[in-house]
């Protein structure tokens, strides 16, 4: 991501919100985030999202086009994975010759329309952590962002449980109606 870039983050779960934090810390311009649940939308706004986009793909695409003068984002980061149609949404949100970064994991095949990214010469990347860019490891960049205060990652922790309450912690983490984002198990507290 180039400083000042317009970024769209698809998804406001833990990975999506961490992506928002990283983009903000690395100097992104406008950052627009799609959110499915109200507590995710609220946290995205608190963490500095320029716009929280509707979960509806058509409405999100229309809003991004309106916000970018019809062009689309420089960088779209897909963080949902699973069985969602988020890759095809990414093609609708990115500008011609922009980049789509796929962080979400798709455990089985999903239908993907490749005509749109082909026509718009979209760059697609599937980054993994442990990468090195310009001689710096991803973890070094993350640690520096957190140490500088530019990445308030601790805000994502919405619940803490003692280790002996692990089953309850996993239940809360899996049930988005609880308002959970990131649940920590704590030893010795």
If you had to describe this structure to a student in words, what would you say it looks like?
There is one protein chain. This protein has 7 helices and 10 strands. The relative contact order is 0.15. The strands form 3 sheets. It has a 6-stranded parallel beta sheet, with helices on both faces. Strands 7-8 form a two-stranded antiparallel sheet. It has helices spanning 14-25, 38-46, 57-67, 86-93, 115-119, 138-148, 166-174; strands at residues 7-10, 31-34, 51-53, 73-78, 94-102, 123-125, 132-133, 136-137, 157-162, 182-186. α3 runs parallel beside α4. It is globular. By secondary structure, it is of the alpha/beta class. The model has no long low-confidence stretch (mean pLDDT 92). The termini are far apart.
List the helices and strands and how they pair.
Layout: E1 7-10, H1 14-25, E2 31-34, H2 38-46, E3 51-53, H3 57-67, E4 73-78, H4 86-93, E5 94-102, H5 115-119, E6 123-125, E7 132-133, E8 136-137, H6 138-148, E9 157-162, H7 166-174, E10 182-186
Helix pairs in contact: 3-4
Share of helix, binned: 25-40%
Q: In which order are the strands of the major sheet placed?
A: 3-2-1-4-5-6
Distance between the termini: 39 Å
What order do the helices and strands follow?
Answer: EHEHEHEHEHEEEHEHE
Number of helices: 7
Assign the structural class, choosing from mainly alpha, mainly beta, alpha/beta, alpha+beta, or little secondary structure.
Answer: alpha/beta
Which segments are poorly predicted (pLDDT under 50) over 5 or more consecutive residues? none
Number of strands: 10
Shape: globular
């Amino acid at each position: 991501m180039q400083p000042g870039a317009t970024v769209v983050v698809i998804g406001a779960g833990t990975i999506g919100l961490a992506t928002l934090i990283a983009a903000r810390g690395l100097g992104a311009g406008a950052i627009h985030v799609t959110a499915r649940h109200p507590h995710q939308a609220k946290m995205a706004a608190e963490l500095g999202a320029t716009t929280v986009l509707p979960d509806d793909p058509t409405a999100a695409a229309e809003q991004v086009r309106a916000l970018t003068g019809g062009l689309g984002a420089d960088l779209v980061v897909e963080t949902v994975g699973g069985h969602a149609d988020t890759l095809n949404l990414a093609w609708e949100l990115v500008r011609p010759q922009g980049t789509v970064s796929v962080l979400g994991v798709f455990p089985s095949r999903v239908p993907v329309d490749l005509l749109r990214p082909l026509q718009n010469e979209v760059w697609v990347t599937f980054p993994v952590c442990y990468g090195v860019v310009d001689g710096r490891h991803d973890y070094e960049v993350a640690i520096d962002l957190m140490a500088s205060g530019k990445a308030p990652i601790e805000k994502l922790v919405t619940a803490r449980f003692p280790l002996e309450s692990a089953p309850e912690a996993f239940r809360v983490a899996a049930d988005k109606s609880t308002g959970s984002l990131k649940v920590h198990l704590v030893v010795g507290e």
